[in-house]
Write the structure tokens for this entry.
Amino acid sequence: MVNKTTKARKRPLSSTAKAITRAQPSVSSKVTQGTISTYHTLIKRRAQLERRLASAQAADFDAIQRALDSVNQDLLRLGGIDAYQKASQLGQSSARGGDSSKVLIEWLHEAGYGRGSEGSTRKGKGKGKATDMGQSCGRLSFALPATMMRRLTTRRMLEIGAVSPSNYANCSTWIENHPIDVHSQHPHILQQDFFERPVPTLDAEHFDVISCSLVLNFVDDPRQRGRMLSLIRSHLKQSEGSLLFLVLPLACVTNSRYLTVPSLKDLMSAVGFDLVNERCREGGKVGYWLWSWKRPGDVVDLEPWRRRRIISDGPKRNNFSIVLP
């Protein structure tokens, strides 16, 4: 009896490559989120110590300086800004569904940009159940000005705190994106501090859309956050069709002593924005808001927003707040 030799079936190189790719270890979302959270905590702690150090008495100076040195060492051990941005890149990967640009693109599509017939709007499918709860949590759609309903109209956009230059690459025919970041990790992202960006003087230098996704919460001073919102309005075209896409950790408005979803809307109205769309799932981690530039109307009393006011106190609440300059 002759033994037949069974030849192994050749596998295409592509399948081998896929198998290798699948086998490669990846950083878990828990580790990624832990890095981001720890970095934010350390940066906040460092800012607090630096403010204390600036006004410290001689007797307290050395102790505060030692605490500040310890925080800086912790940041170095964590990997500094590079580790934070790499974690952010992983966190916003499409595989993890963390890319907030998808929400903005969807809302712009609903406004008639990029697809659909001119003047058409698309209602959202309502992924989040709208509830009251004093937080107006859910997903809402509002009518946009008729001037916005133009299909394939190119929108000039500024993306503050850009992590990847390719977020809007598939929309390049109708979105002219200008990504910036204070610590750019890519040659196609301009390294620039938004606070130092010159305010436009020509209409062509203004933007139709500004994306501020998970950036405002990274600013460590409440008054600087308010200043940032005012600067964003100054960089937008003076048109009711100009938009601000704002993304914040949901805890900033659902678990803060000083800010709630309703008070955020009142604050934004005082700055000069009207709410167009929002999405915040009950139990979710991130909230999304789309605001439109509004023309100055009645005189608004800004004084209540120039200081922090406790709205909902509690031992487990955070201190996130926004104070207008």
